[in-house]
Structure formats: C-alpha cells, structure tokens
Amino acid sequence: GSLLRYFENQVLKNPSFFYAVQLDKEELITNIFWADTRMRIDYELFGDVLTFDTTFATNKEYRPLGVFVGFNHHREIVIFGATLLYDKIIDSFAWLFDKFLEVHGILCSHALKVLDVMNVKIIPDMYITKRWTRHAREGSMQTTKSYVNLEKAECGPIDRYREFCSEAVKLSSFASEFLEGYVIMKKVMGEAHKLMESDKPSPEP
C-alpha cells in the first residue's frame, strides 16, 4: 500500500513517471514495475545494450528486486527500469517485459499483430529509433518519437504539461553538465517567465 501511494504521488508530481502492477485471481498484487523520467531518458540515449539482473538482495517478503541496466558513454551503470517480482515464473517475466516495452514505446508482438489486422504493413516511423537504422551515424542523436499536435485547442493543460515535462528534464539534464549550459538555461528560463507573465491569458477551465 505504501509503495503504491508513493507511485501515485510521483505521477502527480511528474506525469512521465510510469508504474504498473499485476494482480492475481484474488486481486492481490503479485508483480510491480516502474520507471521514472531519468530511467526513460537514459534508455532513449543509452539503450542499445541492456541486461536484466535479478541478483540484487530480496526484501523481507523474499521478493526479488530486478533491474534493467546498461552503460552510458562514461561506462557508468544506468538503470532503465526496476521491478519487484512475486516469483520467477514465465508468466511473470512475460508481463514484465511487455511493460518494459510499453514504457519505452517499443512495439510488442501484440501491437504488431494489431497493425497486421488493420492491414498496416509498414511500421510507422514514430516507433523506429534512429540508432536502429542505417542512418544512425548521421547527424546528432535525436529522438524519433512523434507527439500529438499540442497547439490544437482540444489539447488541454495536462497534455501540454506532459510534453513540456519530458522535454524540460532532457534539456535541464544536458544544460547542467557544464557551466556555460547552466548560464544559458538560467537566462532563457528567466526571459521565458517574463514573456509569459507579460502576456498571460486567463487559465483554462
């Protein structure tokens, strides 16, 4: 219960936080998976190679802690997702890997089957990461994910917040790595605040 409340609070603070739970026939929680914003960004940048490790210590209920891990450009360990498993049966791992694919926007076999039934024979570009293509070495690394046009009137504050939150975390992480980036980021943020305050519309309902 405490863990789920923590996850729910994290989602309220940052909609990019992802978690999922699997229930048994008695509606009791069996398996839990989660990935915060940092994990999702790290996978997008460094997810070419990963391992799934369940050798970490178990908790008092003897439920193994598993983590999806990889390495960044400095050969430092980065985590792409974490899980608490009830057991190590095939069904638990199948559920877990489906959730891992879901959070990182990778098509699983079920989604591919849906596309096939809809007579879609070419995978949409939004699901193809540039680093998996022959053009991986061309230009700078940019995400190929596409987003809903949030400038349309029907898109509400929550939709725009989710978009801004993800992009802001990426930009802040990059800018904080060197002093010049920090100075530029502070200046741009200050100017943006002044601009929005001077032309602030009435809040949406």
From TrEMBL:
Pfam families: MULE. InterPro entries: MULE_transposase_dom. Transmembrane segments: none annotated. Residues 49-106 form the MULE transposase domain. This is MULE transposase domain-containing protein.
